[in-house]
Amino acid sequence: MKRQITLIKRIPRSSVSRFSLSFLPRIVVRGKLQQESRKKRQTGFRIPRSESRAGKCGMTNLLPIVQYSIPRSLLRGSSLVIILSLCILFILQPSKNSSATVSGDCEVCHGLYPGMTEEVEPGKPQYVLKNVLCVNCHSNSDRDTIKILGGARVPVVNNTVKPVKPLAGGNFYYVAKDFGDRKGHNVDGVTSVDTKFRGAPPGYDRISDPSARGYNPEKPFACAGSNGCHGNRNVEDPFDSIMGTHHADDSDIDGSTTARSYRFLKNTNKVKGVVGLEDDEWNQNSSSKKHNEYSPSIDILCASCHGYFHSKDKTGKERPWFRHPTDIVLPKGGEYTNYNPDFPPPPDRPDLRTYSLDAPVGREKIPGLPSDEVNPGKDIVICLSCHVAHSSPFASMLRWDYDAIVAGEEGKGGCFICHTGKGE
Ligand code: HEC
Ligand code: HEC
Ligand code: HEC
Ligand code: HEC
Ligand code: HEC
What is the average pLDDT score of the chain? Predict the structure, then answer.
C-alpha cells in the first residue's frame, strides 16, 4: 500500500454530466464490443478488464470475472485510446465545483468489475452478485481505510485486517470476525446472517418504512436497494438503486436525489433524502473541528428498519433503558450543560461545549463548515450519538463498551459524555 500512497492525488474536480457519461460507453460499445452487444442487446457497457490491475482491489478474488469472447488484442489497443481521449475531454470540460464525483481511469474500475453497469438479463437475477461488487470495491486487504483505484479515492468500509482509522460508519471488519455477530450490520458479502436476528431488523415497523416493497428478511441484507441502507429503497437491486450516483455532481447535499443525499442515503423517492455535511475524508482524520455534520434526518433512515426504537411512546422509564430517547434536544440545563466534561470551555465563552466524536450530536440546521461547538438547548441526540452505522469493536454497534460503562463506578466517556452527573 505504501507505493499507492505516493500516488494519492485529489479526484479531478471536473464535473462530468450525466448525459455525456451515458453517451460515452455506447460509442465504446459500438466501436469495439459490437458482436457482444448485438448478441445481448446491452444498454450497459463493458470495458475490457486489465489483468495487471486486478490485484489492486482487496478481495477481488471473490469475484467471478466475466471473460469476453472477442480477441483481447483487439480490445486492448484502440478501445483504450478512445476511452483515454474521451477521459481527457471530460477533464477539459468547464468544471463546476463538484465534491465527491468519481472520475479517472475508467478501465480500472469498469474493467475490474465488468458486471457493474450491465443490464440484468431477463430471468437471470444478479442480486447477490451485485451486492458483492459494492463490498469488493469498498474493501481493502491492508489496514488503510482509503484506497486508490483508477486515480479515485475509494472509501473503505471493510478491511480484512484490523483497520487504522476506521471511517465514520465504522468498519465491517469487526462484524466479520469470530464472535462479531453483534458488533455490526451483517451485510451479505461481508459475513453470514446474524444468528440472533436471523436477518430481520429488530423493531421493524412497516408503518415507519416509507419504501414500497418493505424490508424482506428472506432476502440478503445488502449495502443498497430495498434491503439496504444506501440508494433508493424502492428499487430492489443494489446497483440499480444507486445508478448514476458515483459520477454525479453531489456538491449540493439537499436530499433531492440519491447523489445529492448524504452518502447516497436517499431512502425512497417519495421522501427527502438524508442531509448532512460530508467530510471529504469520510472522517478518516477527524477531530472536534473536522468531521461530518449530521442532522436528525439520519434517524428517519434508521427508523425505516428500526421504527420501534425510534417512536417516542416506546421510550421512557417503564421501558428498557436502551430504547433511549432519540431526536430530542439536549436540554439546556442540568447535567447536559457539562456535555463532554473532559473539554471545558475557554474562560471567555463559558457556555461553549466541545463536540465529541464519541457522542456526536445532530444539528437542526446543517452548518456550512464543521463546528466544534455543541449547544445544549439546540443540538440533538441522534441514533449515531451512540451507534455507528456499519460496525464497531463493541456489542450493539455502539461507539463504546457499554458493559464496561455499567460495571464502572466513576464513569468517563460513553453515556457519561452527556450524563455528566454534574448539573446545577
Ligand atoms: C473509481 C472507480 C470508477 C472509475 C475510475 C470510473 N467509474 Fe464509472 N462507475 C463506477 C461505479 C461504482 C458505478 C456504478 C454505480 C453508479 O452508477 O453510481 C459506475 C457507473 C458508471 C456508469 C453508469 C451510470 C451513469 O452515471 O451513467 C457509466 C456510464 C460510467 N460509470 C462511465 C464511466 C466512465 C466513462 C469513466 C471514465 C471517465 C468511469 N466510469 C470511471 C466507478 C468508476
Ligand atoms: C469500482 C469501485 C466501486 C464500486 C463497485 C462501488 N463503489 Fe461506491 N465508491 C467508489 C468510489 C471511488 C467512491 C468515492 C467517490 C464518491 O464519493 O463518489 C465511492 C463512494 C461511495 C459512497 C460514499 C459517497 C459519498 O458521499 O462520499 C457510498 C455510500 C458508496 N460508494 C456506496 C456504494 C454502493 C452501495 C455500491 C454498490 C451498489 C458501490 N458503492 C459500488 C467506488 C465504488
Ligand atoms: C435496510 C434496513 C436497515 C436500516 C436502514 C438500518 N438497519 Fe440496523 N439492522 C438491520 C437488520 C436487518 C439488523 C439485524 C441483522 C444484523 O444485526 O445484522 C439490524 C441490526 C441493528 C442493530 C443490532 C446489531 C446487533 O447485532 O446487535 C443495531 C444497533 C442497528 N441495527 C442500528 C442501526 C442504526 C443506528 C441505523 C441507522 C444508521 C440502522 N440500524 C439502519 C437493518 C437495518
Ligand atoms: C443514548 C444512546 C443510544 C441512542 C441515542 C440510540 N441507541 Fe440503540 N442502543 C443503545 C444501547 C446502549 C443498546 C444496547 C442495549 C443492550 O445491549 O441491552 C442499543 C441497542 C439497539 C438495538 C439492538 C436491540 C437488540 O435487541 O439488541 C437497535 C436495533 C438499536 N439500538 C437501534 C437504535 C436506533 C435505530 C436508534 C435511533 C432511533 C438508537 N438505537 C438510538 C444506545 C442508544
Ligand atoms: C448524546 C447525549 C447522550 C448520550 C451519549 C446518552 N444520553 Fe441518555 N439522555 C440524553 C438526553 C438528552 C436525555 C433526555 C433528558 C430529558 O428529556 O430530560 C437522556 C435520557 C436518558 C434516560 C432517561 C430516559 C427517560 O426517558 O426517562 C436514561 C435512563 C438514559 N438517558 C441513559 C443513558 C445511557 C445508559 C446511556 C449510554 C448507553 C446514555 N443515556 C447516553 C442524552 C444522552
Answer: 75
86 CA from centroid of ligand 2 (Å):
22
DSSP H or E segment with residue 89? helix 72-92
Residue 322 Cβ < 6 Å to ligand 4: yes
For 245-278, the pLDDT digits (tens) are: 999 988 899 999 999 999 999 999 889 999 999 9
Specify whether the CB–CB gap between 312 and 352 falls below 8 A.
Answer: no
| C-beta 398 within 6 A of ligand 4 | yes
- Rounded to the nearest 5 degrees, what angle is found at the Cα of 25, between the Cα atoms of 22 and 28? 155
DSSP three-state, residue 139: strand
pLDDT per residue as tens digits for the range 101-135: 777 788 888 887 766 665 556 665 554 567 888 99
What atom in ligand 1 is closest to the CA of residue 134? Answer: 12
Q: What is the DSSP string of 344-363?
A: PPPTT-TT-EE--TTS--B-
Reported as type and span, the H/E element at residue 232 is strand 231-232
Q: For the segment 291-331, what is each residue's pLDDT rounded down to a tens digit?
A: 999 999 999 999 999 987 766 565 544 444 467 888 889 99
Closest ligand 5 atom, residue 328 Cα: 12
Q: Residue 321, exposed/middle/buried by CB under 10 A (0-12, 13-18, 19+)?
A: exposed
* Residue owning the nearest CA to atom 38 of ligand 2: 239
- Best residue among 328, 378, 394, 415 to mutate for probing ligand 5, ranked by most atoms within 8 Å of CB: 415
pTM of the model: 0.84
- For residue 318, which ligand has an atom nearest its CA? 5
Q: How far is the CA of 375 from the centre of ligand 2 (A)?
A: 33
Q: Looking only at Cα atoms, what is the longest distance across the chain?
A: 78
